[in-house]
């Protein structure tokens, strides 16, 4: 992916906060994010439940206006007026996790796919457009599925109908929130292969939101790892997944069967966006700090007290970690630690299985 290509979708300094109930602390669900998605690129946004990735995705879709910061599409700031948002959502479509919940059980497949066309006042041949979308989603011959209802389809077929409902409007980008989480293992590969073929054949961009780094391994061009409202590591998928630098990324990767690593069990409380700690936001659960390795490296105090800047949204490998910086000879610019420390991308070794 060329770094000179202008991003299709960008977030700059994005914050999304939700007021607490009855005087409770504000929840900083997205707490400073820069992210770029380029034409024809698949970006995987990875993190455990509660890290803010779904809120970030919803904000990029215009469903949740940011508290501060800006989303741009095609170089133009996102306009939150109802007419502008309607036009925007024709170009950027959402694919949800649970196809059973996404589809109205009383609507036929034809009506489910045609719904977007009707909302946006499509003036062409509706039947032809629906057939084309179903065919591109892998449901062939499409006419065979027109009059079927969701309960008559398999889980994989239902997910293909949801994808067809997004494709029928010929979007430039899709946001897929856990697109295969509810599917059997035998079907997951088929849906991932479909997303890759849509990228290759249609030039479609995608943001894939997932907790599964194994999925990112198989589909993504670039990976952004999110923890407690911020992206803590990002870069080309092969580089991040074969040479992870952030302890959190290493912990996520360690549980993959193919990693060959001893699984890292994170201690402490799960992320709470209303109680973001000082210093590195991961330090309370960090296995490197707990083991004494950060102390031996001389960065333990920084981990607990020194804030890390927001990573830029570019293509280069970046990591927000004092320990990773110390391993580079106490030169944080070598691992691209955000805007305040500009520098070249880090190095990676190894290779991954071809996608």
List the helices and strands and how they pair.
Elements: E1 9-18, E2 27-37, E3 42-46, H1 53-60, E4 68-73, E5 76-77, H2 82-91, E6 92-95, H3 99-102, H4 109-119, H5 126-136, H6 155-167, E7 173-177, H7 185-202, E8 205-210, H8 213-219, E9 222-227, E10 230-236, H9 237-242, H10 247-254, H11 287-290, H12 293-297, H13 300-305, E11 318-319, H14 322-327
Parallel strand pairs: 3-8, 3-9, 6-7, 7-8
Antiparallel strand pairs: 1-2, 1-4, 4-5, 9-10, 10-11
Helix pairs in contact: 4-5, 4-6, 5-6, 6-7
The strand line-up of the biggest sheet is: 6-7-8-3-9-10-11
CATH structural architecture of the largest domain: 3-Layer(aba) Sandwich
Largest sheet: 7 strands, mixed
Q: Give the DSSP E fraction (strand runs of 2 or more residues).
A: 15-25%
Keywords: ATP-binding, Nucleotide-binding, Transport
InterPro entries: AAA+_ATPase, ABC_transp_ATP-bind, ABC_transporter-like_ATP-bd, ABC_transporter-like_CS, Oligopep_ABC_C, P-loop_NTPase
Family: Belongs to the ABC transporter superfamily.
Domain ABC transporter: 9-253
